[in-house]
Design brief:
By secondary structure, the chain is an alpha/beta fold. The chain contains 13 helices and eleven strands. It folds into two domains: 129 residues, Muramoyl-pentapeptide Carboxypeptidase, domain 2; 212 residues, 3-Layer(aba) Sandwich (Rossmann fold). It has a seven-stranded mixed beta sheet. The protein has a two-stranded antiparallel ribbon with strand order 1-2. The protein has a two-stranded antiparallel sheet with strand order 3-4. The structure holds S-adenosylmethionine. S-adenosylmethionine binds next to helix 6, helix 7 and strand 6.
Length: 388
């Protein structure tokens, strides 16, 4: 069955068996669906429930995404759910949950969807695949919810897998823009400043910053850069760009900077038009393929001999204490998401320690210098590179 989303009428998804039976008190349902704490609680219980199902059905990790999907469907069928595509939908998408959901979701209420669907993602991740939500009924113009099972992204040894797919991540920074600085941004300043202090920019240089966030590093760049330096700041989040724009509102700064809302893998900017690419705490939010694609874009933007500076959480720290801290971070990564989400409007950190050196080499950069710093005690690596 296909339902056309119609704004702004509140949406009542089709109910079959009733995942949240309508008899449930509306107040309780509202608490679970509409509040961050409620959603976090549901997510916590569901993810644990997913693990319990895998155990009780004696499920095993599979070699391919297809096999993982089959195993997942076996378990869902085993508990009376029907994971086959909706009749007549004409897609291969799975209809699990959505055909049973009785939550009254409003336009754009993707966080409720995230929380409820995390059970499937949790199960699939353990079986050897990932769940990608391609379309949601709560998105304008959507005709139905569409879930795809995809192969797990490539992960380098020692790195943690990202906890959500790219499309889901996109909304998180819009939501976090109001408090991001207090949660993360100000903690990133020492590492960013160390990186910027060691960056040598020629007079009149053109600099592009990928993932500008709230503009803390951009403001430092504007303060330090020689006269005539011009900046292009790229970010995918509209709200983060608004914050950054406000931060550099002084006319002498604003006149030197331009904002572009785009994905860092395809900025749409002219090739070989920059002398420097700066990026902090962006590449460590990407899986390996997206990281390589972003480095490819950075290389495309740079002139030959141009320089790059990439700040990331360090996946290969030097000292014993740093190694312990990285392990600690990795152990907690994703695990504490329900608490983060309950406290911070559905936001949880995406960054995690990565091993960047090899990817830089593979992308046509020569490392000229590596510095080390910390963010709230966790090791950070600053890579200075030259485009070869
Ligand atoms: C962790 S914040 C870092 C912000 C800033 N560089 C700093 O150090 O304070 C990451 C920023 O990258 C942006 N971002 C995430 N994925 C992106 C993508 N694929 N393309 C462009 N920007 C992206 C987010 O919107 C967010 O503003």
């Amino acid at each position: 069955m296909i339902r056309q989303y119609q704004e702004p009428t509140p949406l009542r998804l089709q109910t079959r068996a009733g995942f949240f039976p309508p008899a449930r008190p509306a107040k309780l349902k509202r608490f679970f669906a509409r509040t961050h704490a409620g959603r976090a609680l549901v997510e916590c219980v569901m993810r644990a429930g997913g693990r319990a199902l895998l155990w009780s059905f004696n499920a095993r990790p599979q070699q391919t995404a297809q096999a993982a999907k089959a195993e997942w469907e076996r378990i869902l069928s085993g508990i009376g759910l029907d994971p086959r595509p909706m009749e007549g939908s004409g897609t291969e998408a799975c209809a699990t949950c959505f055909s049973r959901c009785s939550l009254e979701l409003k336009a754009g209420d993707t966080s409720t969807c995230d929380a409820v669907m995390s059970i499937n993602d949790e199960m699939l991740a353990r079986l050897g695949a990932r769940m990608v939500i391609a379309e949601r009924l709560t998105e304008p113009h959507a005709t139905r919810c569409v879930v795809r099972v995809a192969a797990k992204p490539r992960v380098l040894g020692g790195e943690r897998e990202l906890w959500c797919d790219d499309a889901t991540a996109e909304g998180h920074f819009d939501r976090a823009s109001g408090f991001y600085d207090f949660l993360m941004g100000y903690f990133e300043v020492p590492a960013n400043n160390l990186a910027l202090r060691s960056l040598r920019l020629p007079a009149g240089a053109c600099v592009v910053e990928l993932g500008v966030g709230t503009g803390l590093a951009l403001r430092s760049l504007l303060k330090r850069a020689p006269e005539g330096t011009r900046f292009v700041a790229v970010d995918r989040s509209r709200r983060m760009i608004e914050k950054a724009r406000q931060r550099i509102a002084r006319p002498e700064w604003a006149a030197r900077a331009e904002f572009v809302r785009a994905d860092a893998v395809a900025t749409g900017l002219a090739s070989e038009s920059f002398d420097c690419v700066f990026s902090s705490f962006l590449l460590d939010q990407f899986d390996l393929d997206k990281r390589l694609a972003t480095l490819g874009e950075a290389r495309r933007l740079l002139r030959t001999g141009g320089v790059g500076c990439f700040v990331v959480m360090d996946g290969v720290p030097a000292g014993t204490l740093d190694r312990v801290m990285t392990r600690l971070y990795n152990a907690g990564y994703a695990r504490w998401n329900p608490i983060w989400k309950a406290l911070f409007a559905g936001y949880a950190p995406h960054c995690r320690p990565i091993c960047l050196a090899e990817s830089l080499r593979a992308s046509g950069f020569t490392e000229s210098r590596r510095l080390r710093a910390h963010i709230a005690g966790f090791p950070v690596a600053i890579f200075h590179v030259v485009r070869t």
